[in-house]
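Contributing new complexes? Match this layout with magnesium ion.
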Amino acid sequence: MNKRTIVSMPGDGIGKVVLPEAQRVLDAVGFEADYIHADIGWDFWISEGNALPERTVELLAKHKLGLFGAITSKPKDQAAAELSPKLRDKGYVYTSPIVGLRQHFDLDICIRPCRSFSGNPLNFIRRKGDGFEEPAVNAVIFRQNTEGLYAAVEWTDPPEPVRSALETHPKMARFKSVLGEDLAISTRIFSRGACRRIVQEAFAYARRFGYRSVTVCEKPNVIRETSGMMRGEAQAVAKDYPGIELWETNIDAQMMWLTKNPETYGVLVSGNMFGDIVSDGFAGLVGGLGFACSANIGRDVAVFEPTHGSAPKYEKLSPSIVNPIAMVLSACMMLDHIGEDEKAKRIRDAISAVIAEGAVRTYDMMRISGSPESIGRGAASTTQMTDAIIEKL
Ligand code: NAI
Ligand code: MG
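Output block (do not edit by hand):
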């Protein structure tokens, strides 16, 4: 296997802590790669007026594979206030660099596996008879990553042509008397090609990894056009996968069933907003932010990242106490993506073994609040958790 080049984008806060930990695990499993550091995040907004510098985009365009830690983003007025004085009032507007990457490289397939590790004290438990049971959750959410409500086609006080265009729809009549400044519109745009692609990827994944069902989770009974298109594409694609059942759920009911029978679900597929919601819901059943990994995959470029943010309150803690597992699992998804299945499996098995043994747990796994005292209370540091995983390898 040729040596890979990975663009390493730690970003801000704990992104800078967890990404090097994932690289240590990748080294330990024998994955041969060069890591090229790339700038991204708040510091570059402050100093350059761009949280996603062009040089970072160029590195990704060249090398195709990226690991991303996390970034800090702040509201508009705060972003403007922190911008370097020499850049102020020059028209710079802050935009999220990770959203920027997804759009620039059309990383339209977001995958979020939510699997419980046996022995994780954060696993969801359910009442059964006089006791409790712990269902083994193994759900993988495919979220369309570039369209829908996140396409950001929206207005408050929409311009006149928009308003008149909308008024060609009879259902717009009830808003006729609302003043422009009192009217906010966020559009939910789905395109058939993108719906088709996310559903196809979901089915292909189900086949590759042996899942028996794909659930399209939308709301076609109410949001008839967009959810209806996703559902229609799912029905069409399902015909090519006779061994895999297509199930259909509505997002609201799905969230209710989450705590009733989460173990029933295999692969799920949704548009952008509902995919975000349902994947956070499942992630909560398997340990939350310290465990939630994700992949953003386009036709050409792919970026792998934990779901969590930069957790600024832990940024300066030394030694660091945050859980590196979400980042390490994201690195495993990169290995899956490039066909290094065996190495990915070995890392996941090592994580399973550490969790099952229970001797090394970060503060989040102990359900205590994170503070400089966490380690004195028995929590492992970030490094100790990584070391334990490496030792099992
Ligand atoms: P966050 O995910 O950074 O942290 C929320 C809380 O979750 C933390 O205070 C901590 O208690 C816990 N947590 C997060 N990661 C953890 C880990 N690896 N181990 C143990 N505990 C962990 O979300 P928050 O506080 O809402 O946002 C902080 C900053 O991150 C903001 O600037 C936000 O915009 C940004 N953000 C960036 C994301 C990204 O880079 N993709 C995603 C979410 C938020
Ligand atoms: Mg989210």
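Reviewers usually confirm one structural detail per submission. For this one: Residues 124-148+190-285 form a domain with the Rossmann fold fold (CATH 3.40.50).
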